[in-house]
Amino acid sequence: MSVIPAALATATAVGGAGAAAGLVLPQRPRVPVVGVLTAGVGVAGGAAGVAALGGDRWADTLPGVLPLAGTYLAVDALAGLFMAVAGAVVAAVAVYGIGYAGGHGPHGLGSRTAQAVLPLFALTLVLVPVAASVSTFLVLWELMALASLLLVLAEHRERASVRQAGVWYAVMTHLGLVLLLIGLAVFAAEAGGETFAALRAGAHAVSPTVRGLVFVLIAAGFTSKAGAVPLHAWLPRAHPEAPSPVSALMSAAMVNLGIYGLVRTGLDLLGGGPAWWWLGLMTIGGASAVHGILQAAMASDLKRLLAYSTSENMGLVLIGVGASGLFAAYDDRPLAALALAAALLHVVNHAAFKALLFCAAGSVLRATGLRDLDRLGGLRAPMPATAGLFALAALGAVALPPGNGFISEWLLLQSLIHGLQVPGVAVAVVLPLSVALIALSAGIAAAVFVKALGVGFFARPRSRQASAAKESPPLMLAGMGLLAAACGALALVPGLLGDGLDRAVAATGLPGSGAVSGGGLNVRLADISASLSPLWLVAALTAALMLAAGLPRLYRRRRRRANARLWDCGGGPPTPRMAYTATSFAEPLQRVFDDILAPEQDVNVTPVRESTYLVERVRFQRRVPDRIEHRLYEPVLRALAGTGQAARRLAGGSVHLYLGYGFVGLVVLLLALAVGW
Amino acid sequence: MSAVGYAAVVGQIVVVGAGAPLLTGWMRQVRARLEGRAGAGVLQPWRDARKLLRKEPITPVGTGPAFRVAPALLVATTVVTAGLVPLLSTDTPVSTHADLIVVVALIALGTLALALAGLDSGTAFGGMGASREMTVAALVEPTILLSVFALSIPSGTTNLPAIVDGAVDEPARLASPAGLLATAALAVAVLAETGRIPVDNPSTHLELTMIHEAMVLEYAGPDLALVELGSQMRLTLLLGLLSSLFVPWGIATDVSWAALAVALVLFAAKVAVLGAVLAAAEVFCAKVRLFRVPELLAGSFLLALLAVTASYFLSGAS
């Protein structure tokens, strides 16, 4: 008896019970009961994922569930990896969510609708990788999108901007769905079957042109879900406006499924493809990484900053997936396996630190009601635990040792650096550029998180709300503690994941890379002489830190630290308004990337009425718009609106005209049938 | 074997730690003489450090744990890096851990700690320094990693002792176009990372042009001593790294006390020469405007990119 079906059945039952409980229970017990059941979904789904990573496989067909098509389910190690990540994130965030929604009253996340949908969203996050046919996959995918849309809209009473974000998200996610639907339908029609097994078997018989078309459509759909440019516009809107636990689920679990879909269809079902597919994917990845992190550097809204950082990290993952496909296309399969392992490990690491970052941002939002870094500050004194957890997660996000993000970026860089063995001029040009883009995004990421931590949590409070902040309730801290433990484990002993990661890579048909296998403490690459042992590094750093801290003791006995005033240039004590804000911190970077970011600034000078030389008021305004959005979306939106306006003239109000339209339509249809078929 | 190996690691840390103030004193002295001044003597940084270490530790009001930990963390990252980089010997017990990317990341970690401390002080100067330092660090990163890439191509690994060993065995690698371009790119990156002219002026007292000094303006006493020691060690270490990569002769590749002693003397000589050259160059250059620094770094990035592509196209891989 396999663990997987039992765990999946449990997850589904518990998720259903959670949804029912959210609908029927009164306000007071609703949040804790639904929270516990949602955590149950996460634990059960995660258990199924871990079992699959352990080498278990399972497949089944439920003919009665979806009419006409039937439901096909299968779990292999690749699906297991994404299920385990989603399950772990769901479990920890659900615990956090009990504390978060508890303080929110009957609206927002604690409302009946939101609490009924939350377990369903958790369930779909776990179940999407289980789907093993096109129709099952698309149904679950759409359920996930709808559930998340309802959750994004949970706080619509509190802010008008939530509704706008909801519209953007609804439109873009359905645009993505349409692309996927077309792509997968064409693929299924050409391959002669809609189950994944049939697609895999029939993929080689499909003509190269159709395969290319299918890949382009599918890649557009999946990268949109992953928040990669240019179809990313929903992400920086929806993630900040959603309640923080939902942001954490979306950013740490949902966007991963875009990567899952891409790996599953691109590498597994289509069985790889020519180099141009993967070069395109790497271009998208590189552009997302740099664009995302630059926008994050400009953002002073904490949650918007984190959302753009998600876009950056998914860009890095896409570079890894693209490199993997590229190496496979040139038949260097061990290197392809290494690149894919790096990408998948980065998905895991990103999920851990980004869930924690969003939860910590949620705690700040709950304690102060502020997301604006310029008005925060000084939170390390009233909220020491939250500040510490944010710092830990930020260390993962900046990809420096001893954070967890460093290990996956190191693997990714190693795979790219050794990729020059692969022949081809395109490779020789693209790989160095990718390394440079990864390095640039890592460098700017360091500035971004120094800004978020240093301006948001350090120095002194810049507003009344920030100085009145209080530490979060224990359940929120417990949820964040779970995520922090995951970050720590991934940073110190990535080998724990080893064999599972190998099996996940092997599920796509590549040989296992053995990069972090063996349960050992070291990350060692088989074909390449390079190794990394995070635990050794931490030990060395700790020893050196004690040495350095002890150095001053050689010269004097231990003395109490004396307090002194800050240097104020003799002008009286500096006020918090003199401290650097997030906007001023980002100003040099904005100037450096002026040509790319194209900021808009506006100075309004109002003179005193009698004289043009005396100024009454000066108003200065600066925005850094998302330029891709500016250039790509606005013309399309304008054209659509223009077409709509023009089409109004067709509806003149005359019944005869409408009857005429019907007649012409019928004639055209009949002609088409007569001539074409 | 292991005794010599451990001695080499300890020797590297000690020579960087104890030699760093001397190198700074030496560079100031060279500079002073070229400018026609008598100079304070090579030992002056040592005397400064001793004086600062004896003072009472000061915590400015309003600063937090990050401000207090950062100096020790800066020194700690430099100490670990000094142990890893093959300055004296390529055959040490830690040589398997000496990955070039790890070394670069550890140095960046020290920068990041100081920037956070600058913001933690809550003053305008601290924030300004942190903001500028992180901007420069972000722009240097691509150059450094591309140079790493270029250096790792001939030996097929990013492991530093292996790269140095390879260069000792096959000196032609150093004179190849890729090697020379990578040297030039990395040299500019080192100038930026250590805050030397033309990127930053280490002896400035004008707050508005400061980068590094603005960030650490609030430090005093033993903390300031650690910050100064940390930056001096970084300069020594990075000059040492440059010399190991591009003038690797003399570094002990086998385990013997004699080789280690020779390596020690040669290391001191190489770093002293590099330091003197740097100090002399600084006399004739001015610091560039902060917003011209990106142009300089873009130039070095281009050199690094050329280094990678050159090593690909010229090494006959095609």
TrEMBL record, chain A:
Recorded topology in the membrane: Multi-pass membrane protein
Name the UniProt record assigns to this protein: Hydrogenase 4 subunit B
Residue stretches making up the NADH:quinone oxidoreductase/Mrp antiporter transmembrane domain: 132-426
Chief location bin: membrane
Cellular component GO terms, alphabetical: plasma membrane
Taxonomy of the source species: Bacteria, Bacillati, Actinomycetota, Actinomycetes, Kitasatosporales
GO BP terms: ATP synthesis coupled electron transport
Keywords for this protein: Cell membrane, Membrane, Oxidoreductase, Transmembrane, Transmembrane helix
Source species, domain of life: Bacteria
GO molecular function: NADH dehydrogenase (ubiquinone) activity; oxidoreductase activity
Species assigned in the record: Streptomyces luteolifulvus
Entry's localization field: Cell membrane; Membrane
Residue ranges of the TM segments: 32-53, 73-101, 121-154, 166-189, 209-234, 246-263, 275-294, 306-330, 336-360, 381-400, 420-453, 474-493, 535-555, 655-675
From TrEMBL, chain B:
Keyword hit for Membrane: yes
GO cellular component, one term: plasma membrane
Alphabetical list of Pfam families matching this protein: NADHdh
Membrane-spanning residues: 6-27, 69-88, 100-122, 134-154, 235-251, 257-284, 296-314
Keywords: Lyase, Membrane, Transmembrane, Transmembrane helix
Entry's Gene Ontology molecular function annotations: lyase activity
Keyword Acyltransferase: no
Membrane-topology annotation of the record: Multi-pass membrane protein
Regions annotated as coiled coil: none
Localization terms from the record: Membrane
Name this polypeptide is given: Formate hydrogenlyase
Native species: Streptomyces luteolifulvus
